[in-house]
Amino acid sequence: MFWDLILPLFIPAALVLFFRILNKPYKPAIFGVYQQRNKFFWIKYIFMYLILSFRQLVNHIRRILAVETGKSSDGVQHVHKQDEVLENKYYLGDHAQGIDAVYLNGCNKDGDAVICGIARRPKHVVDAFLFLKVKGEDLLLSPELPDTYQEQVTIEEGYYRVKGLEIANFIPMRTWKLTYNGDMKVRNDTEKTVKVELELTWSAVFSHFNYDTQMSPKSMARDLAKEKWSRGYFKLLKKFHQTHYEQMGVLEGTVTIDGKDHTIYHASGIIVLDPSETGKRSTATCIISFSWKMETVWPLVQCVSLLFYHI
Predict the structure, then answer these.
(1) Into how many domains does the chain fold?
(2) Which residues, 6+ apart, have CB-to-CB distance to 220 below 8 Å?
């Protein structure tokens, strides 16, 4: 008797509520860029959260199985096979935005600081820079700054190396070498140059953070749920996927400035940015935050994105 009275009222009310939500206008993006929570936000959030959490679980199980079956080291004494792959150099292709980069920075309480980056680009072009500050000396800059565009000679091609500056991986996920031999200009007098010889070793202290597999599912699901879903949107995410990891360690070694030796030791971080399989880098905030491979769930996402095509 109760349901006989409720159902005739519930069904029309539910239909009215559904179509009100369906026809609810979108809140405009803040500054035309940052999307807000809109209709069906929670449905999309739960859907993406489940997919991302499941993917993290699958990746964790794969790492364990690789160790148990003898296909990989345990990642403690020796580097895990999955992590070694992150250190590989990539073929960039001819896409203008292809990038394979390493970035180092660090400082200490005495004011010593090193900031260096080398980004390999197609056609043997690199974006490179070096900032160096040691106690008792002026801030030194790469002679090309503020321009970072540089071209490699034949012997430098395929390496993070240009005009005497080099960042080289010594032991995967453990050690990098930063070296430089050449002139640098003084920040307060750019017409003045000094001779600099730099040899530093970066050593890992903590394990790396891989944005592909370790980003918070809640954070990514929340950001994705705010966006307008469509087939084109997910194709764009797949197209501009990139690999990006960061790691904390220490940077130590010697710097010689015009024949005067200095010892450097300070905390430092390293960032490695590799291209997607298409050799293209991310160019928008929402794409950078979505740094995981879509291939594993692509068919399912395409089907659901069609459902929300106009949402």
Answers:
(1) 1
(2) 48, 52, 289, 290, 292
Answer yes or no: is 9 within a domain: no
pLDDT at 77: 63
Quick one: how far is CA 142 from the chain centroid? Answer: 25
Structural domain of 37: 23-307
**pLDDT surpassing 90 at residue 75:** no
Looking at the domain assignment, is residue 17 inside a domain?
no
Asked if residue 101 belongs to a domain, the reply is: yes
H-run or E-run covering 136:
none
Alpha-carbon gap, residue 311 to 306, rounded angstroms: 10
Q: Is residue 5 part of a domain?
A: no
| Structure tokens, 273 | 């940015």
Report pLDDT for 115.
92
249 bridge partner residues: 204, 268
Is the pLDDT at 274 greater than 70? The verdict is no
Distance of alpha carbon 151 from alpha carbon 145, whole angstroms: 14
